[in-house]
């Protein structure tokens, strides 16, 4: 048995005009559809740019602290704090065999070694 067509009026997500055509249609025209998706891409792009800026800044701080020559170094947490290192932004993490968590920022990793010390490691070196 077929269900009767819905008598509910469908309206466009963008402009509010009535939608004609297929039952699963969401926009009244390709112009409204494009406007919707352009808006989504713009919002996503802005969020990604802001996050990427923080990640690049964190990486620059780690490069500066590492002095370019060493592959690992222990530093006092206050040194990172002074440079406004943002501990919340990482590109990944891993847990070693001792249960310690390495936080990755691109090709660098850092781990809380003790309450006041951070171990920084240049990966792939």
Question: What does this molecule look like?
Answer:
- The chain has 125 residues and is of the alpha+beta class.
- Helix content is 34%, strand content 20%.
- It has a domain of 73 residues.
- It has two helices and five strands.
- Strands 1-5-4-3-2 form a five-stranded antiparallel beta sheet.
- It is elongated and about 70 Å long.
- This is DUF2116 family Zn-ribbon domain-containing protein.
How is this fold's topology laid out?
Layout: H1 30-66, E1 72-76, H2 77-82, E2 92-95, E3 101-105, E4 108-112, E5 117-122
Antiparallel strand pairs: 1-5, 2-3, 3-4, 4-5
Share in helix: 25-40%
Class computed from helices, strands and strand pairing: alpha+beta
Provide the succession of SSEs: HEHEEEE
Give the overall form. elongated
DSSP summary: helix tally:
2
Radius of gyration: 25 Å
Termini distance? 68 Å
Strand order of the largest sheet: 1-5-4-3-2
* Main sheet characteristics: 5 strands, antiparallel
Instruction: Indicate the low-confidence ranges by residue numbers.
Output: none
Strand % is 15-25%
Kindly state the mean pLDDT as a whole number?
Answer: 90
Q: Say how many strands there are.
A: 5
